[in-house]
Write a structure and sequence with these properties.
alpha+beta, four-stranded antiparallel beta sheet, 41% helix, globular
Length: 121
């Protein structure tokens, strides 16, 4: 009985630690790649509603010339509680981009920056 309980605790610990929570930088990379590859289901899952609509509206105009690997690289990132900022580069843009991110229901999502809000970089 004791072995069975230990086995159950071990299995529970392993299954709880193997969740699909991504870091803020991994989420930023997924959103950038989803935008380029027109994977709107992933794009919608990892953005709040307003940025999703904005990204989809410009997606057709911008991504038609893009192809291949994005070469996503984090330039700088910062986290403060449930908010993060990720500045990154891709092979498809000359200037670095910055995502503001919030944590909702335990998952990082790209959100919109507020009026007159500036990134910490």
């Amino acid at each position: 009985m004791k072995k069975l309980i230990c086995f159950f605790i071990l299995i529970s610990t392993i299954s709880c630690s193997e969740n699909d929570q991504m870091s803020h930088t991994e989420t930023a990379k997924l959103v950038a790649e989803s935008f380029i590859n027109k994977d709107n289901s992933s794009l919608e899952k990892y953005t709040t509603p307003q940025p999703y609509r904005s990204l989809v509206s410009v997606q057709e105009m911008v991504t038609s010339a893009y192809s291949g690997n994005t070469n996503f690289k984090v330039v700088r990132d910062t986290v403060c509680n449930d908010m993060a900022w990720v500045k990154f580069t891709t092979s498809h843009e000359q200037k670095p981009e910055t995502f503001k991110m919030i944590k909702q229901d335990g998952h990082w999502k790209v959100t919109e920056t507020g009026l007159r809000e500036r990134s910490p970089f």
